Predict the structure.
Amino acid sequence: MIRETAPAKLNLALHVRARRPDGYHDLETLFVFCRDGDTITLAEAAEDSFALTGPFGAALVGDDNLVTRARDAFRAAFGAAPCAITLDKHLPIASGIGGGSADAAATLRALARWRGVPTDTPELFAIAERLGADVPACLLGRTSIGRGKGEQLVPVEGLSDTPALLVNPGVAVSTAAVFKAWDGIDRGGIGSGDLLAAARAGRNDLEAPARAIAPAIDEAIALLAGEGVLLARMSGSGATCFALFDSFEARRAAAARVKAARPGWWCLETALA
């Protein structure tokens, strides 16, 4: 049996530069990954099967999803016997933290380990790119600058082990709707230098349109603000917001504040990988 973590992805900054004729957008983003997320379990079986567990498993209906698409694409490229895959789903759906993309990438890594395929094989990244814009970054699983539609990746160092708090107000936000509402203004790329400084000097160009669609994002960011916060921002197309902290004590205090104010919201205390 093979297990692979599908960690939550955060965009410390997300600069949208232009709309592309293929329906995607040119962007620059700072990808980081958390220690926690979903889990993919894979085992050889007499026939293919796919099972869902976890608090958000019931939100995924049917067999057609990024996990089974990743399995089928891997098999077409490399061959593989039938297998039983279980997704233990702990990340909320449509939440801007790469849940589906991370699940697909973890499936590719698990299958690659099973079949003895190196995880840095170019064809594996080609499969990832065909599955979705964030899947290559999740397959790499390292802090990186993403360009193009997010698939052009340059690994960078910084912020490992930084305490982080993720908060989702229970609102699923459509990525397509948020990108469609982007105002089309290119406000420039991400600056150079220290990762945290570049993130602080940056922005998330999708935050304003996402806030218009889901006003609860305003409250989430306000609740995250406080002593010890290094950066608080919305991730991806929302609605998950995050804060990075200078200590685990500050993170615990923020988590207590959020849980007291909004006990029904999803809240994850974690750290950057």
